[in-house]
Design a protein that fits this description.
By secondary structure, the chain is mainly α. The protein has 13 helices and four strands. The protein has a single domain, classed as ABC transporter involved in vitamin B12 uptake, BtuC. A two-stranded antiparallel sheet has the order 1-4. Helix 3 (77-93) packs across helix 10. The longest helix is centred in the last third of the chain and has 27 residues, at 212-238. It is found in: Cell membrane.
Length: 322
C-alpha cells in the first residue's frame, strides 16, 4: 500500500500580514481609538472633511510614489504645486487667456518642472535630493516673482476643482480617479515596471536594456503633474493661488508614501498604501484637532509617526537581507 505525504496546512501568518498591511491595521486602530475618544469623529460631515483634507496630500503623494519606487526623492513637489496653481491663475485672470486652458497650463508647468528636475539627476548626475532641493528654491522664487508676493484669484475651472459635484466634493472624486489611474500606470504599464526595476537594482536594469535615464526623467514628470493637480485642488478650495501655497507639503507626501509601505531604498511601493498613509496623517491631524490638542504638539506626534514608519522600513529591509 502506497501512501502520499500530505503537506501540513500553513496557519495564518500574522507577521507577514502586519508587514504587508501594517498601515491599514494602524489606520483601523487609530479610527477606533478616536471614535472612543470623541463621538464627533465618525460623523458624516467630519468624514467628508477628512476626505477633502487628504485629497491634496494623497494626490501629491501618488506622484511621489513613482519617484520613491525608482529610488529617488522629490523635495520640490510643494513648490511645484504652488507655481502650477499660480501659473494657471495668472494666465487666466491677468493675461486673459480662455479659462478652459487654466488646468492644462497648470499641468504643463508641473510636467516641465518635473522634467528639469529629472534631467538634472539623469543627465547632470546630480543626486535626486540635490536636484529637487534646488528646484524647491528656484520654483518657489518664480512663484513669488509671478505673483509679486500677493495672492491671485483663480479662474472658474480651477475653482471648480475645490467645489462640489452634487453632494460629493470634487477633491474626493479626483482623489479616487487619480488614484486608480496612478495604480494602473504603476502596476500595469511599462513605465511602472521599469520604475520598479530601476529602483530595485539600477545596474541590473541598465544591463537589461532598460533606459534608466529616461525612466528617471519620466517618474519626475509624473510627480510634477500630480503635484500640479494637487496645487490646483488646493487653490480651488481657497479660491486663490497664494505664493506660500503647499509650503511643507513635500514632507507630508514623502511621509504618506513611507507610512504606506514604500521603501526609501527603492523597488517597493503601492498606490493603495500611499492612500492609506495619507489617510493616517489626515486622521491623526483631524483627531487631534477634535481633541483640542495644540498645533505644536501635533507636529511632535506627526514627526514621531514618520520616525516609526521609517524605522519599520529599516527593520523590514534587514529581515529581507537575512
Amino acid at each position: 500500500m502506497s501512501s502520499t505525504a500530505i503537506a501540513p496546512k500553513k496557519g495564518f501568518d500574522v507577521k507577514a500580514f502586519l508587514a504587508n498591511n501594517g498601515a491599514l491595521v494602524g489606520l483601523v486602530v487609530l479610527c477606533l481609538a478616536l471614535f472612543i475618544a470623541t463621538p464627533r469623529f465618525l460623523t458624516g460631515p467630519n468624514l467628508l472633511n477628512i476626505g477633502i483634507q487628504v485629497s491634496t496630500i494623497a494626490v501629491m503623494a501618488y506622484g511621489m510614489t513613482f519617484v520613491i519606487v525608482a529610488a529617488g526623492i522629490d523635495l520640490s513637489v510643494g513648490s511645484v504645486a504652488a507655481l502650477s496653481a499660480m501659473a494657471s491663475s495668472y494666465w487666466i485672470t491677468t493675461a486673459g487667456l480662455p479659462d478652459a486652458l487654466s488646468i492644462p497650463v497648470g499641468l504643463a508647468v508641473g510636467a516641465a518642472c518635473g522634467w528639469v528636475t529629472g534631467a538634472m539627476s539623469a543627465y547632470g548626475k546630480l543626486p535626486t535630493f540635490i536636484s529637487s532641493l534646488a528646484m524647491l528654491t528656484v520654483v518657489r522664487g518664480l512663484t513669488l516673482v509671478i505673483s509679486d508676493g500677493r495672492p491671485i484669484s483663480t479662474g472658474a475651472s480651477v475653482s471648480w476643482l475645490g467645489g462640489d459635484l452634487g453632494v460629493v466634493p470634487v477633491p474626493i472624486i479626483i482623489l479616487v480617479v487619480s488614484g486608480l489611474i496612478a495604480a494602473f500606470v504603476l502596476n500595469r504599464t511599462v513605465i511602472g515596471k521599469n520604475a520598479f526595476a530601476v529602483g530595485g537594482n539600477t545596474e541590473a536594469a541598465r544591463l537589461s536594456g532598460i533606459p534608466v535615464k529616461r525612466v528617471l526623467v519620466t517618474v519626475f514628470v509624473i510627480s510634477g503633474v500630480f503635484a500640479a493637480l494637487s496645487g490646483m485642488i488646493l487653490a480651488g478650495r481657497l479660491d486663490s493661488a497664494q505664493p506660500t501655497l503647499a509650503s511643507g507639503y513635500e514632507l507630508d507626501a514623502i511621509a504618506a508614501v513611507v507610512i504606506g509601505g514604500a521603501s526609501l531604498s527603492g523597488g517597493v511601493g503601492r498606490i493603495s498604501g500611499t492612500l492609506i498613509g495619507a489617510l493616517v496623517l489626515a486622521v491623526i491631524r483631524n483627531g487631534l484637532n477634535l481633541l483640542s490638542v495644540s498645533a505644536f504638539w501635533q507636529q511632535v506626534v506627526i514627526g514621531a509617526v514618520i520616525a516609526i514608519a521609517v524605522g519599520f522600513d529599516v527593520l523590514r529591509r534587514k529581515n529581507v537581507r537575512h
